[in-house]
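Section 5.1 Outputs to date
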Amino acid sequence: MKKSTYTFVIFSICTLAACVPTRKFEALQVNYDNLKSDFDEMKSLKDYGDKTFDELKEKYATLEDRYTKLNKERLQDEEELKRTGKSYDILSQNYKNLISSTENTKKNLGSELEKLDKELDTKKRELFAKESSLIAKEQEAAKLKTELDALSISLKEREKKVNELQAKLDSQEKALTDLKNKLTESLIGYKNSGISVVQKDGKIYVSLDNSLLFQSGKTDMDWKGKTALLKVAENLKGLEDFDIMVEGHTDNVPMKTDAIKDNWDLSVLRATSVVRYLTTEGKMNPNMIIPSGRSKYVPINTLETKEARAVNRRIEVILTPKLDQLMEILK
């Protein structure tokens, strides 16, 4: 295996839709949670596959050892059978010689003949018992050989799937790193303007401070944020193996205006505003982006300070590798 624990950092799927009303957004959020649950289940399947693979290897080794011992015993029994057969042939020949002797000799050797007859009978029983034992051991050895062959095939198939899965995970991890480096390089001019690119938990998070995008309590973007979003769109619009979620986050200060009901509303409207700009001016595929509002419930800093609240007000563009190919491998 390429990695020690088959760590599959498998990921939640987030996809589709540009500008949706609250009811559709809630449905999409449910879909997102379901896909995340599928991802967790798939990770459990991989862990289960790893455990089963190890158990089969252990069983294979045990059966192979037993088969080797049994085959050794069978060879020993064959040698013993040959020796017994030779002894039987000698006794049989002696018996025939005695039978061919004269009547007087038969009388004189009657006791010896009786003794030889008993020995012959005993050897016959021993020979039959050894033959029966040898047949039984050969049958058991054949059965074990069949089980070993079946287990060997199963182990090879499972090992192949595990290797395919690990290779795909390595490929996705490299794609994540390459994309993260590409985004970081393209946004280096905005490093001190409230933009960060972070790779964690098998995803890439492009975080943009609200101060760069929106005025306080507003949902219309400022020009300085739009230029940064165009840079992001330039790197993302050709992606096919990633799902994209745009999440709006607010601080914990209550918000209410004639146009905005609360922080939930504000976070969703800001995310939608960003998605609308990415798909219109940024020319990104609307089917690949989902806008989402998280209100105040996913803060970066929980302190009740002005600086902490400013950090929590942000837009996050979350990039998640698609799991279609991983699921196909696990079928």
